[in-house]
Amino acid sequence: DWSSDVCSSDLKMKQMKSYTIKEFTELIEKESLLVESKLYGREMEYIENLTYNSKAACKNTLFICKGAKFKEEYVKEAVKAGSICYISEKKYDLEDQIPYIIVKDIRKAMPILADTFYNSPWEEFKLIGVGGTKGKTTSVYYIKAILDDYLKANQKNPSGIISSIDVYDGVVSKVSHITTPEAVELHSHFRNAADSNLDFLAMEISSQALKYDRVDRVNFDVGVFLNISEDHISPVEHPDFEDYFQSKLSMFKQTKTAVVNMDADFAERILEAAKAAQEIVTFSMHDKNADFYAYDIIKDKKGTSFKVKCQQFDREFQLAMPGLFNLENALAMIAVASKLNIPIEHIYSGIKNTHPKGRMEVYTSKDDTIVAIVDYAHNKLSFEKLFESVKEDYSDYEIVSVFGCPGQKALNRRKYLGRIAGENSNRIILTADEPAFEPVGDICNEIAQHIDPERTYEVIEDRTEAIKKAIKSAKGKTVIMIVGKGHETSQKIGNQYVDYPSDAVNALRFIEEYNAQVSYKSIVIKR
Description:
This protein has 527 residues and is an alpha/beta fold.
């Protein structure tokens, strides 16, 4: 993350209340997390920087020792750079007498430290959190578009966003590699947003963020629960679906207004958990009793028109993105915007003009023979919804799917994605998708075990070559579904992010090559 190698005291933040080593120690003790501490007479020294990255340590740093792979050399490096205290689950043998705070659980301590150090900045603007298995990114972009349309009309700064695509907090604008940052980064973004006088910030809330305490000490003005389906089941994430579901549901305990999808699986259970919030607002495409009900839905390959009935209005909306599942996301954000008292004209405009990068991007050849669809779909629910929509919109086209699965996490995806692609594709090309430390071939072979034996598949490890083969080998009317990476311009190989053309860039490139070839043949025939 951007701040992992930046000293907090170097950031241009407004003057905040500072805390001493003693005050942080007392805070940890008050939260019943303190095991022991030794401050060596330096208890009244002020903390000016907070980090868990030794490369970001500087003068007067409180250094956080965290992570399964943490090494003693990191805390030594931090001390050498100017750290005056470290907080950890264990003591380290250091040459100098450096104050230390030993805690029961460093993950539970981190949000307490971050919220205190940055002076609870999330209280200074309206915070919208979006949770669920699929649709989080699209949804936060819908609400950002709505809010920005309203803010621009009132000559105010655009809203903030923390998503799996990018981050904007009024100071920092950067590409993202994680859905929800660790607490230290998260609160630094909040502080930037507050200091930049942003009125709103929308963020995705991952199950990992909820399970591992990243969003503790934060209350959401509006919290959205889109849907639930099995995902992120692995030894390093959630051991089973129940753990995943419980983590997702825990967001309601820190939510003022809960916005809930009545069409979601396990809706009754979600609504029961939502009672922990101060208020519940519902939306649905099927239940007329929902607070926000979508009806008269008319869709085509380019977009969707629909009407929404609620207490405030009953009117038509236009959605630029194809796919019925995107209407569900838009409906949720219409409900959110209404609860935030955004005027209807800005809700309409924001929904109509939004198309997040890497989400249902459609590239069509000049002769309409080849259609390449780039989408971020990467789990069971998103695959099911995407194939359902594509088969309906392109019923007379063959379907070729290009996808892979990440290495060392969300292991259950390999079974589900292989099975769903096998049931719905005429041909499949398996390829790389964030392999990390796992061989791409091994991942693809595991996916292949779950593909219908009657389906043709092949493994092309290089993603660019896989997309090229899918488009150039198409015969007749064909939809090429390039899924899993969306807008992303890198691949995680080992522990490094390696630059790579995005799926959209590759799709457009090879469609244009196809167009040139078709045009050339047409000229030859005319001669």
